[in-house]
């Protein structure tokens, strides 16, 4: 027996399962037999890419800050979940928006601090009647935020909300702007006489 012919270690074994592909592969190898890779003098290392930038977020933040500097905050658009809002059926929601922005002149004010529930109930009802008889159409009622009510929650605020919704003379009411008592007070719009 003669020894096997020396093998070329660069050639992969021939695949006989696909004769056409094997012929093409042999032909390709023959044509490329004398080709050698080029040596490059260039350094192959790439510069690291710049760190990601959130320029759109920064632009949005700058735009918001510019808006805050230029214009007054529309408190009608700011909600914290504690606000009282009511507008009688059939009236435009824009009425409520104008009231929330403080665009009606407040003609009278009632402060319920230090009152018990019964005194506050009587005071609110008498105050509404008094103002309506005198043609005062926008009033402010300060009910407080209920910070001393502990686990019962804001008792006078809840009472005010309930009483105002049931009075026909009340067209709309909403929590006041922050500089006027915020969620501790309401603006009330009354029908004329």
Question: Any overview of this molecule?
Answer:
By secondary structure, the chain is of the alpha+beta class. The protein has a domain at 85-190: Ribosomal Protein S8, Chain: A, domain 1 (2-Layer Sandwich). The chain has helices at 19-31, 55-70, 93-100, 117-133, 155-166; strands at 85-87, 108-111, 138-142, 170-175, 185-190.
Question: Unreliable segments (pLDDT under 50, ≥5 consecutive)?
Answer: 75-79
Number of alpha- plus pi-helical segments:
5
The CATH C-level name of the domain at 85-190 is Alpha Beta
Strand order of the largest sheet: 1-4-5-3-2
Which fold name corresponds to the CATH topology of the domain at 85-190?
Answer: Ribosomal Protein S8, Chain: A, domain 1
Q: Percentage of helical residues?
A: 25-40%
Quaternary structure annotation: single chain
Structural class: alpha+beta
- Mean pLDDT, to the nearest integer, reads 81
In the CATH hierarchy, the architecture of the domain at 85-190 is 2-Layer Sandwich
Q: Report the sheet with the most strands, covering strand number, pairing sense and barrel closure.
A: 5 strands, mixed
Order of helices and strands: HHEHEHEHEE
In summary, what is this structure?
By secondary structure, this protein is of the alpha+beta class. Helix content is 34%, strand content 12%. Strand 2 (108-111), helix 4 and strand 3 (138-142) form a beta-alpha-beta unit.
Write the layout of secondary structure elements.
Elements: H1 19-31, H2 55-70, E1 85-87, H3 93-100, E2 108-111, H4 117-133, E3 138-142, H5 155-166, E4 170-175, E5 185-190
Parallel strand pairs: 2-3
Antiparallel strand pairs: 1-4, 3-5, 4-5
